[in-house]
Each structure stands twice: as C-alpha cells, then as structure tokens.
Design brief:
By secondary structure, this protein is of the alpha/beta class. Among the domains are: 62 residues; 258 residues, 3-Layer(aba) Sandwich (Aspartate Aminotransferase, domain 2). It is built from 12 helices and 12 strands. The chain is globular, with a radius of gyration of 24 Å.
Length: 466
C-alpha cells in the first residue's frame, strides 16, 4: 500500500522505523495534556463563551503543530471537571491510570467483540465482573459485561428480564395478550423510559410508584403491582434506585426485594452512582439488600473516577444473561466454551474499557476508593451543615449520598438561574436541575480537590450573591 500521501507519523511502524518521530509527537501531545490538566485550577470550571471550531476537513495533511494548537483551543474551552470549584455534576476528573488505560486501549485497538480479537482483555473483563459481583454480595455464578454508559446497562438488564419473563427473544411481543409493565420510583432515571421504548414496551410501561423523599415506597409498590394484575396487565420487573440523579436518594433495597420476590418479579438495582458506596465499610450499609438483586447497574466513570466511558451490568445468575440475551454470530471463531462478549450485550464492537477500570482499581485499592467515597460523604456534610445555618436557603436533600440540593427560599426560578451564573462567575459551578416543579442548585461533592478552603470560599461567594 502506498503511504507516500500520509505524514511520517500517521502510524507507528511495526518495526519501529519512525519511532523517534512518533515519540516526539507523543511528547508534544502529552506535554499539552499535562499543561492543561496541571493548570486546570487557573481556568474556569465551565466556559460559556467558547471559540468557534472549524471542522473543515483539509485537502492535505495539516502540520502537527497546527493540529495540536487546535486541540489546545478545544480543550481550553471544554468542561473542566478538575477545577476545585466544579461541583455541579457526577463527572469527575479522571484517575491517572484510567487516562493511561484509555491510551493503552487505543494503542492495542483490540475489539471486545470476540475472544479471538481480544484474548487477554476479554478474559480480564469476565474475571473482573466476577470480582465486582462478589463485592456486591452476589453469589457464585454471578457475572456481567461492561457497557458504554448506565443507560445501555439498564437496557441490557431490562432486556434480559423481559425475555426471561415472556420468552419473546425469537417471536417478539406481538403475540402478548397482556401489556408488560415494570415499576420504579418517581425519581428513577430517565433511561428506564428510553429502555422501554427500545424494548417495544413503550414509555407507559414504566409505572412510577409513590416515592416519599425520592425513596420508592415498598407498600405502594405492592399495591401498584396488585392493581396492575387486577387490570389484566403483566408486571415483570421492579427497578430500585441506589442514588437518584437529583438528590442522591437510595431506595430501601431489602424491603423492595421482599416485595419483588413475593410477586415473582425481576429486581434490577440501578446503582450507577451509589454503587461506589460498596467499597466503604463505613458507608456500605446504605446499600443493604443489593445482594438480593437479579441485576445491578454500576458506573465507575462517576464515583470511582474512571475516565469515560465505563459502566457495567452485573447479573445474579450469569446464565440469565447467556440464555436471555445471547445472540451467536456466525463470523466469530469458536471460543472453546468462552462466550464472546459481543454476543451478550447491545454493543458488538467495543473498546477495552476494562483496562481503565482494572488499572484504577489496582492503583487505588479498596482503601483508596473507600477514602474517596467517605471523603465525598464528609464533604457533602460540610456543605449541608453550612446551608442549614442560612435561613434564607431551602434544602432538598435525601442525605444518602454526596448530593446536596438547595435554592433561595421562596425565590422564582429566574433567581435560581441568576444565582447559578453569579456563583460560576466567582469560580463555582453548580448544576440547575428541575425538581418537583422548580429549579434547584445541585452540589455533587465529588471533587477530591474541593477541600475546607474551597468550602469556605463557596459560602463566602454564596453569601455575597444572595
């Protein structure tokens, strides 16, 4: 193949002939990234006046310096979650080794579609999923797969639950006489409605159950299931939430498991955010009952600080995944008893996201992760206590995890928006979610570089802005 039209550094030659040139390019790129990451505190947490991006594809290769200059501009205008004042979303700065893992995955360019295309990395994913399933208290025989985000993980769990309940993997839902339903709290994640649409159930199939303080009420759940059956519907699953998006509330998992078990329904726990609590001996009691789940979603890309994307779905019985979703592909080589991972989830081709997770877990260990999780809880308590001492502020806070929501008391939404803008001007980014008909300011106490000094500065900024 003629490579004369390409720059010398287009690829790293397998014989290393151009290693020096590629090494110089990598050095420039890594220095750029280190400059930006190491100078994150000097840039705003969020820039709303970014520069125009020229996406035109050039006729000929551009000089490397120009390309890196464009990259610098893009990243300077990007969201800056490493800033100590970035406390508005469940987006963390990435762990060092997850960045290295992303680079390694890109360099290896293996495809976790099949064992043949990713021999060591496919086996690593299977083994690590077993380890995490064990950590959540799931029994021997548990396991799972990774996915690009919690929405896909929830989709997979509900797809398996639907197929197991109705045996529709081959024939589809057309012949079903009773409408399938699943039940979740009023504060459950919107990905459930998306999953219901994709699975052919329709958004109305997600029954929102009464949830005082954002926690699914077990008694109301039992009543809703019985009423649906009396109405000729076909309940098949319950979704409990461990860490709601706005207030961080955790459903009473053990009680919900009892209701789901008595009704014979699949129990899925969406622990995309709150699942990290399992690493802390001090905090894991908040997830009591998660070991009773049939499936669990967990997103290490949030509270485990793994670079995006990194999510997974665990199954109490990995055989349920095999039997309820597996779709063998004739172009994949026989894996000798090993199920190719591309046959098990909604994704086929997939990068080795497992590298980022595995490397971070190796680097932090249980003790390091526990310290981060407990630090987040303690940081949230600092914000919570400070807000409680201000009578002009109203707090809406479940207190289960490191999310704190507040707003100026009796204020219009426009006032909340103005306060958000003023706090951003002073170096603190808080999100502004709609919740129960009003806008709130949300703190996600996730940033490990937001410490006592930053908390004090935040309250000084808040007092000056109210």
């Amino acid at each position: 193949m003629d490579r004369s039209a390409l720059p010398e550094t287009a690829f790293l030659a397998p014989d290393g002939a151009n290693r020096a040139a590629v090494e110089a390019l990598f050095a420039q790129a890594s220095n750029l990234l280190l400059d930006l990451a190491g100078g994150a505190a000097a840039r705003p947490p969020l820039r709303l006046d970014g520069r125009f991006v020229d996406a035109e594809i050039p006729q000929r290769p551009r000089p490397e310096g120009e390309i890196l200059g464009g990259l610098r501009e893009l990243l300077e205008d990007a969201m800056n979650p490493a800033h100590p004042g970035y406390i508005g979303h469940m987006d963390s700065l990435p762990s060092t080794f997850s960045v290295i893992g992303a680079m390694a995955a890109a360099a290896a360019n293996n495809n976790l579609l099949s064992l043949e295309m990713s021999p060591s990395l496919s086996r690593l994913e299977v083994a690590l999923m077993r380890q995490l399933a064990k950590l959540f208290g799931l029994p021997a025989g548990a396991g799972g797969v990774m996915a690009s985000g919690g929405s896909l993980a929830n989709l997979l769990a509900l797809g398996v639950a639907r197929n197991r309940a109705f045996d529709v993997a081959e024939s589809g839902l057309c012949g079903q006489s009773a409408a399938p339903l699943l039940f979740a709290s009023e504060a459950a994640h919107g990905s459930l409605q998306k999953a219901a649409m994709v699975l052919g159930l329709g958004r109305a199939a997600v029954v929102a159950v009464k949830s005082p303080r954002d926690r699914l009420c077990p008694r109301a759940l039992a009543v809703a299931i019985a009423a649906a059956r009396d109405d000729g519907k076909a309940p098949f699953a319950v979704v409990a939430t461990a860490g709601t998006t706005v207030t961080g509330a955790i459903d009473p998992l053990a009680e919900i498991a009892a209701v789901a078990g008595e009704a014979g329904l699949w129990l899925h726990v969406d622990a995309a955010y709150g699942g990290a609590l399992i690493f802390s001996r001090r905090e894991r009691h908040r997830l009591a009952g998660i070991d009773l789940a049939d499936s669990v979603t967990f997103n290490p890309q949030k509270w485990l600080y793994v670079a995006k994307s990194c999510a997974l779905c665990l199954f109490r019985r990995r055989d349920d995944l095999e039997q309820g979703f597996r779709s063998p592909q004739p172009y994949m080589a026989d894996a000798g008893g090993f199920t190719n991972l591309g046959e098990l989830g909604p994704q086929g081709t997939r990068s080795a996201e497992v590298l980022k997770l595995w490397l971070t877990l190796q680097h932090f260990g249980h003790s390091g992760i526990a310290a981060l999780v407990e630090g987040g809880q303690d940081l949230a308590a600092r914000f919570r206590d400070g807000l409680a001492r201000r009578p002009t502020v109203e707090i809406c806070d479940a207190g289960d995890s490191n999310l704190v929501c507040f707003r100026p008391r009796d204020a219009a939404d426009s006032v909340v928006a103005s306060l958000q803008a003023e706090l951003l001007r002073r170096g603190f980014f808080l999100s502004q979610p709609p919740y129960r008909g009003r806008r709130w300011l949300r703190i996600v106490a996730l940033n490990p570089y937001c410490a006592a000094a930053e908390v004090a500065a935040f309250f000084a900024a808040l007092d000056a802005s109210l």
